[in-house]
Amino acid sequence: MTSIKTPSTERPTPPDSTPGAALHSGTSDLRALVLNNLRQSGIYVALVVIVALFAVLTDGVLLSPGNITNIVLQYSYILVLAIGMVILIIGGHIDLSVGSVVALTGAVSAVLVIQQGHPWWIGVVAALVVGVAVGAWHGFWVAYAGIPAFIVTLAGMLLFRGLTLRVLDNISLSPFPSEYQQVAAGFLNGLLGGQGFDAFTLLIGAIAVAGYAVSGFRTRVARIRYQQPVESFPLFVARVVLVGAVLMYFAWQLAHARGLPIVLIILAVLVLVYGLLTRRTVFGRQVYAIGGNLSAAALSGVKVRTVNFWMFVNMGFLAAVAGVIYSSRSNGAQPAAGNMFELDAIAAAFIGGAAVTGGVGTVVGAMVGGLIMAVMSNGMQLMGIDQSTQSVVKGLVLLVAVAFDVYNKRRAGTAR
Q1: Predicted pLDDT at 314
Q2: By C-alpha distance, which of 241, 188, 194, 198 is closest to 217?
Q3: Least trusted range by pLDDT, from 7-11, 145-149, 231-235
Q4: Chain Cα centroid distance, residue 81
Q5: Do 75 and 135 belong to one domain?
Q6: Of the chain's two ends, which shows fewer C-beta atoms within 10 Å, N or C?
Q7: What percent of the chain has pLDDT over 90?
Q8: Given pLDDT bands bounded at 50, 70 and 90, which one contains residue 219?
Q9: Residues 210 and 340 placed together within one structural domain of the fold
Q10: What is the pTM for the complete model shown?
C-alpha cells in the first residue's frame, strides 16, 4: 500500500530573518569592523597608555607646557621624514639614505648662508633643490634601472654622507642668521592676545578639532553609502569628543608655554597635504595599488615606473625639508648630522600601522607612530635612563609592532 505524503503547512523561515542569524550578521559586521581597524585603533590606545605611563613616572613633567613644546621642536624632523617613508613603504619600497640626505641638504644650506653670506632663503631653496635631485637620482635607479630600493638607498647612504664631508670639508659650520633659526625655533604668539596664554594657539586648536570632526563624519557617511561596517553613532561621537579633548589639552599647554611653534604649522600643513594626496588622489591610489599587488597594478594600466620615480623624488624633497628644520634647530651643520634618522622614520611608519609587505599604512598612523617614539625617548630622558637602554626599548617596541602586523595577517588568512 502506497502512503501519500501530505505537504507540510509549516513554512520554513529564511535564515537571514531569524533572530539568531541577525545576531550572527551583526556580530560578523562588528568583528569585521574591529579587525579592519584593530591596528589603527591599537596605536591610538598605545599612545595614550604610553603618555599616561611616562606622565606618572616623571611626576607630570612630561605633560608640562615647556616639555610638550620641546617634544614638538625636537622630533618634528623625524615626523617629516616619516611622512615620506610611509608612502615609500606603502608602495613596497624603503629608503635607507634619508639621514645622509638630511646632513647633505643642511650642509649645502650652511655653506651658502654661513660661509658665502647669501640670504637665508637662498639656503632653504638650495637645500630643497638638492633634496629633489637626490630623490630623482634614487628614483631613476629604482624605477628605470630596476635595482631594488634597498640597494640603491644603501649606496646613497654612503654616497651622500661622503658628499656631506666634502661639502663641509670635515668641519662644522655655525651659526645661522636669526631668520633661518626661526624655521625650527620660532613661535607665533600674541596675535590675538590672552591673559597668561596665547589665544591664537587655542583658536588653531579649535579649528583642528572642528576639521577632525567634519572629516570623520564625512568618512562615516561615505562608508555607510557603500554599505561598509561603521561604529555606532554614540561611539563615533565619543571618539570625536575624546580626540578633541586631547587636541585642546595639547593646544592649551602650548598656549601657556611660548605659543604656536612655526615648525608645528609646517608639519600640520604637510600632514594635511599628504593625507589628501594618499587618500583622495589618483597618485595615492596608485601607490597603494603598486604596494598591494604590483602585477595587478601594471595590468590595470598604472604607470608603475613613473609612480615609483615620483615616490622617491617626494622622499628627497621631504628629507630636504627635514634637513632645513634640523639645521635650523641645531643652528649649524655638522658632518655627523642625521645619523640613524632613517631608522627612526622607518620605525615610526611600522609602529603606525604600515605593513612590511606594502599596500597598507596611513600618514596619520605614521605621525602617531612617530609620537610614540618621541614620547618614549623624551620620557626616558627625563627619567635619566642611559642611551643604551633607550635603544633596547625602541628596538623591542618596533619588533612587537611588526610581529603584531604579521600575526594579524596570519589570522586573517586563517579566517578565510
Answers
A1: 96
A2: 241
A3: 7-11
A4: 8
A5: yes
A6: N
A7: 47
A8: confident
A9: no
A10: 0.85
d(CA 149, CA 25): 44
24 vs 43, residue with greater confidence: 43
- Quick one: 268 exposed, middle or buried, by C-beta within 10 A (0-12, 13-18, 19+)? middle
How many residues in the chain? 416
Q: Provide the domain limits for residue 222.
A: 193-259
Mean pLDDT to the nearest integer, 332-353: 90
Q: Has residue 21 been placed in a domain?
A: no
